[in-house]
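Structure ticket #2291
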Amino acid sequence: MTMKARPNSDLLIGLAFTAGGLGICYQAAGLRPMPGMVVGSGLFPTITGAAMCLFGLVLAVESLLRPSEGGDAAPGAGPDRRRGALPLYSVLVLVGLALLGALLPSVGFILCGVVFTALVTRLGGAGWTGSLVFALIATFGLYYVFVYGLRVPLPHGLWGF
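Resolution: structure written out below.
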């Protein structure tokens, strides 16, 4: 009995992160410098994009070099933990990241950050209360670090927050 070849999920995720990192670097190259800042406003996005490219490529290459484990499923894995299957969680996170990137300028960092972080945490297995508490702490923590600590403006969106 011959099984159909399945895409390697680590390869797909690695390539998606590499593509996302390239997109971030491209966008960061077009950011204008802010007057009075020691570093340009594109520095942190460029570092993030470059790191995404690097780690995405490492994941993709590692998945290609990894020896096959003699079948489609890893030893002891259940039916939905096949080596090549792209988990629904990964697909939802990638779709969420794409939506986050599209909605961030119009909706704003705080609202997008809280909703995205709460949903990803909830999908990862946390309860609603823990997801919301974590989302609020993480989003506002990042907001204060970037806006007040690093003096990097974040999108406010149409509603001003």
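Closing remark: Confidence is low (pLDDT under 50) at residues 1-6, 70-81.
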